[in-house]
Amino acid sequence: MASSFNFVIGSAKFIFAPIERCLNCKRNFDENMKVLQKLLKELNTVKEVIELRLSAEIHGGTMQTEEVKNWLDDVQRIKTEIEIIERKAKEKKFLSRVFLGKMVEEKVVELKAFLRKGKAFLGMVKSFKYIIVGGGVAAGYAAREFDRQGLKPGQLAIISKEAVAPYERPTLSKGYLNPNPKAAARLPEFHVCVGSGGDRLLPDWYKEKGIQLILGTEIVKVNLALKTLVEGADAKNMFYLRELEDADKLVESIKMKKYGKAVIIGGGYIGLEVAAAMSINDFDVTMVYPDPWCMPRLFTPTMAAFYESYYENKGIKIIKGTVSVGFNANANGEVKGVKLKDGRVLEADIVVVGVGARPLTALFKGQLEEDKGGIKTDGFFKTSMPGVYAVGDVATFPIKLYNEMRRVEHVDHARKSAKHAVKAIKANETGKELEEYDYLPYFYSRTFELSWQFYGDNVGETLFFRDDNPLSPKPKFGSYWIKDGKIVGAFLEGGTPEENKAIAKVSRLNPPLENLDQLKKEGLSFASKF
C-alpha cells in the first residue's frame, strides 16, 4: 500500500508542476489584461486629442501629418486586435486564456510604445493658454482687455468662421448697406473697437501682440474636458444678415436688382434696419411679420404705431399677423416670390430673413449647464466647468439690478461682458478682488433720420410722453416703465447725448414716484433732474 501511495503522490507532483505554471500564466493573463485595458483607455484619450487637434489645424504646421495618420491607423489596428483577445478571453476556455497570455504581454509592450509616440506628437501640437471660440464683437473686445491686463505673445488664439478680424457687427444692417459708395461703411474702418470710441484693431494689431487669428475656421465639435476643438433650404437672392459675407452678397444683389422688389421677413431689429436700408437703396419694400406690431419685445402699441406710420410714409408696405410658408423660384434657383400663410404671394427680387438667431450653444450640450436658452454663468461669466467662460448673447447671467438670470442680445452687452470676463480670468489668476458684473440693459437703433435708445427693464405700467407725429421733421418722444411705484426703464426717440444719459441714470436709480400725473406733465424733464 505504501509503495502504491508513494507512486501516486509522485505522479501527482509530476502532473501538477505544469498545471501550476498554467495557473501562474492565468494570473499573469488577468493582471496583464487589466494593465492592457488601462493603457488602452489612456491611448484612446491621446488618440482623441490628436484627432481633434489635427482636424482643428491649430498645429501651425509643426505636426508631421502623414506620420500622425499612420500612427492613428496603427492605433485602430491594435484596438481591433485587443478586441479579438478580449472576445476569446470571454469564452472562458482555460487553455485559450493560457495561450493568449504571451500575446497579451506583447500587446502591453506595444501599447506602451504607441503611448510614448502619441504623447510625443502632442508635444509638437501648438496650444494656447486662452482660446476664444467665435470672432464676433465680443472676441475683439476680449482680446483688447487681455492685452490691457498683461498678455504674453502666443498665449491667446481667436478661432472664427469668418475670414476677417473681429468687427462691429451692427454696421452690417446700417452703414454697410448705404447706397452711396463714398459713404458706405467698409472694412477696415469698422473693425473693433471703434463702436465704443476705441482704437481700430486691424489684423496687424493682433500680430504685433502675438495673438493668433485662426480665420475661416468653423468649430464643429468641442470637448471641454479635454480642452480640444474640431473645425469643421438655400436659394439665390435670399439672405440672412449675420456675417460680413452675407452683407457682401446682399450688396452685390442690390446692385444687380436695382429698383426691384424686396421682401423683409421679420419686424424686429434686423427687419426694421434692413427695410430702411433697402428703401434708401430705391427698392419697393414690403415687411412681413406675425406679430400685431413691430418690435413687440420692446415697443408698446403706441410706440410701434409711430414707427409703422413713419415707414409707411417712406413707401414701405407692412403686412402683419402672418408668416411666410414658402418661396417661388425660377429655373436658375432665384427667389421670385414669397408665399404667405394667408394665401397671398408677394413678388420678390430679394428676400432678407431678419428673424433673429438662436445662440450657438449646441457645441456644448451636455458639457455646460444651460438656463433660459443660453449657457448659465455667474456674475463673472464663469460656466459650470472650471476654466470655461461664456460672454455675449450665449450667456445667461445674473442681472444684479433685478436679481434674476437673463440672456441679452445686444452689442453693448457683448462688448462689456467680454471685458468683464477677461478681468475675471486675470483676477482669478492673481488673486485680486473683482466686483460682479452690474449691467444696465441698453438697446439702441438708427434708421432713416430716427435714432432711439432704451435703458432698463420694460416691465410694468407704461407712461408715454410725446411729440410723436411721424411727419415731424425731428420727432421726440419717449416712455417710462413703472413697476412697484418706481421707474425701472426709459425709452427716448430723438434724444440729445445729455438727454440719453439722463434716461440711463433714472433707469438705474429706480426713483420712487408719488404722482403719476406730475410725471406725465414733466415727461423727459423728470429724468433730467437726477
Automatic annotation (TrEMBL):
Pfam family, one: MDHAR3-like_C
Domain of life, source organism: Eukaryota
GO MF term list: monodehydroascorbate reductase (NADH) activity
Gene3D superfamilies named in the record: 3.30.390.30, FAD/NAD(P)-binding domain
EC number: 1.6.5.4
Keywords, alphabetical: Coiled coil, FAD, Flavoprotein, NAD, NADP, Oxidoreductase, Redox-active center
Domain Monodehydroascorbate reductase 3-like C-terminal: 440-527
Coiled-coil intervals, chain numbering: 26-88
Location of the FAD/NAD(P)-binding domain: 128-229, 230-418
Record field: catalytic activity: 2 monodehydro-L-ascorbate radical + NADH + H(+) = 2 L-ascorbate + NAD(+)
Listed cofactors: FAD
Record's GO cellular component terms: cytoplasm
Family listed: Belongs to the FAD-dependent oxidoreductase family.
Name of this chain's protein: monodehydroascorbate reductase (NADH)
Species in which this protein is naturally found: Gossypium tomentosum
Phylogenetic lineage: Eukaryota, Viridiplantae, Streptophyta, Embryophyta, Tracheophyta
